[in-house]
């Protein structure tokens, strides 16, 4: 499976970084798609410092912003690269349910970041993945999740509920 082109979202820390690091070690070309340029480039430098043969690059992507997702896909297409694997790793836990936070597209931040953004990114890259799959039968979409959506698990973190039904609708409805 060596030599694949792989996008990993949220790859500057945690599981995303470890995934990118291991995949580079295995000889794949990995695009670290991160919203923070400084942290994303630092992650790339760290991977290359540990493995000088690593093919790691940074591209800006904020999965909580539809415009950023569209721009990322446009920039990726301009590179003319195939895409073999998309790893949707970026996510957040907005445990403070006393104050609502919204994406620039006016969706509740957790829903926008963990669900809607990755869905749009995957949809916009689906033809690329299908094309790679037809060529080598090994295209993949990997979605990393947590257990925090489970109300029983949420209690362990002191959170009443992370999936408030109101969060699935446009935020700030009073403006509509």
Automatic annotation (TrEMBL):
<dbReference type="InterPro" id="IPR036291">
    <property type="entry name" value="NAD(P)-bd_dom_sf"/>
</dbReference>
<dbReference type="Pfam" id="PF00106">
    <property type="entry name" value="adh_short"/>
</dbReference>
<comment type="similarity">
    <text>Belongs to the short-chain dehydrogenases/reductases (SDR) family.</text>
</comment>
<protein>
    <submittedName>
        <fullName>Uncharacterized protein</fullName>
    </submittedName>
</protein>
<keyword id="KW-0560">Oxidoreductase</keyword>
<dbReference type="InterPro" id="IPR002347">
    <property type="entry name" value="SDR_fam"/>
</dbReference>
<dbReference type="GO" id="GO:0016491">
    <property type="term" value="F:oxidoreductase activity"/>
</dbReference>
């Amino acid at each position: 499976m060596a030599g694949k082109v792989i996008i990993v979202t949220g790859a500057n820390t945690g599981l995303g970084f470890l995934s990118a690091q291991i995949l580079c070690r295995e000889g794949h070309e990995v695009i670290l798609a991160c919203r923070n340029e400084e942290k994303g480039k630092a992650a790339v430098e760290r991977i290359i410092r540990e493995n000088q043969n690593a093919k790691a690059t940074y591209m800006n992507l904020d999965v909580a912003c539809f415009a950023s997702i569209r721009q990322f896909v446009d920039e990726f297409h301009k590179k003319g690269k195939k895409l073999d694997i998309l790893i949707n790793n970026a996510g957040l836990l907005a445990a403070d349910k006393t104050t609502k936070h919204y994406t620039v597209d006016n969706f509740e931040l957790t829903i926008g970041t963990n669900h809607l953004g990755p869905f749009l990114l995957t949809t916009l890259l689906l033809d690329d993945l299908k094309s790679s799959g037809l060529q080598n039968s090994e295209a993949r979409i990997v979605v990393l999740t947590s257990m925090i959506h489970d109300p029983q698990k949420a209690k362990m973190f002191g959170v009443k509920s992370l999936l408030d039904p109101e969060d699935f609708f446009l935020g700030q409805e009073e403006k509509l």
